[in-house]
Amino acid sequence: MTDALTRIYVDADACPVKDEVYKVAERHHLPVTLVAGGFIRVPQHPLIERVAAGSGMDAADDWIAERIKPGDIVITADIPLASRCVKAGATAIAPNGKPFTEESIGMTLAVRNLMTDLRSTGEITGGPRAFSPRDRSTFLSALDSAIRRIARRRAAPT
User: Which family does it belong to?
Assistant: First the structure.
């Protein structure tokens, strides 16, 4: 069992791995907060909380960023939100399992901004590749590893 101080936040509006988060969180007895712009369905479970943050452009992101703390985990494909969470000392993981780290977030943000600019000028017209079963598997492994890493850090003598 992992320290209950760890909470998993899910940027839930378009998250393809919510079911996987529920399963892993239940196995580790961790609370999950799903944050969306509006109402979303979630399973009835004492560890799962649903938050409708409002319809503002970044309402869900702001809600998460204002509450996340070191030792928490956020699941998001939103790179600016991941950056805010990493800066707060949390672990950020994309739904495809890619971790956002202090070392990688700057470059990831720069590439995101470049791609946004290229799309706005018509230089690039395609989007990201489709979500795959391999992405789902990579995500499960990344989430489980992050939870175990946080638990080890908390258990280490200070």
Answer: Belongs to the UPF0178 family.
